[in-house]
Amino acid sequence: MPRIIRQLKRRIRLRARRQWLLARAIRRRKKLRSLLDQTAKVRPGNILLFVTMRNERVRLPYFLEYYRQMGVQHFFVVDNNSDDGSREFMMAQPDVSLWSTRASYKASRFGMDWLNWLLRRYGSGHWCLTVDPDEFLVYPHCDTRPLRALTDWLDASALRSFSAMLLDMYPRGAISAQPYSEGQNPFEIARWFDPANYAIRKNNEYGNLWIQGGPRARVFSPTSRPRAPR
Asked: pTM of this prediction?
């Protein structure tokens, strides 16, 4: 009985937190200004991508190419006051809907309040991918199988969501000696990663895994073991 009570309390607590986060997102939608609305192009079953950006112009061509080839059919983008041409570049794309805001990225839970509103408004009934402009989803056989193969497997397995580990990639030698050119595959430069030095712990609150360490722990805290946040 005590275990059942604990599980019930946990579900109530998580539900309350979800409602609180949703309320935050609804309030902060007023900070978003629509610059390009092409959501009428979205069709049932399309795979959607949601991203927040600020001054990412040099990364955007390959970012869009990578996920288009993977099977993303529409991009929902929040621009956080870019001044390097990122906004103008995205407005020229045929499969992008764009919003702009000057509000604090940190105060919006690092952009997640904005994206949660867009996910609620447009993501229902779709498989949705949430990433940053410098993040590239990699999964088994992704070089030969599109995202649709992954989402079909998730559907067949009755899984409604999944998370992925963030793996930091870096070049060999000095980073300053490895300039990046617009449109270039970043993995041509950043081909290295730490295979060890990770701490894995279960987050009892959400049931997921905290995986931390790698080059961040090696460079910034070389004498301390990575610790999961509480």
From this structure: 0.87
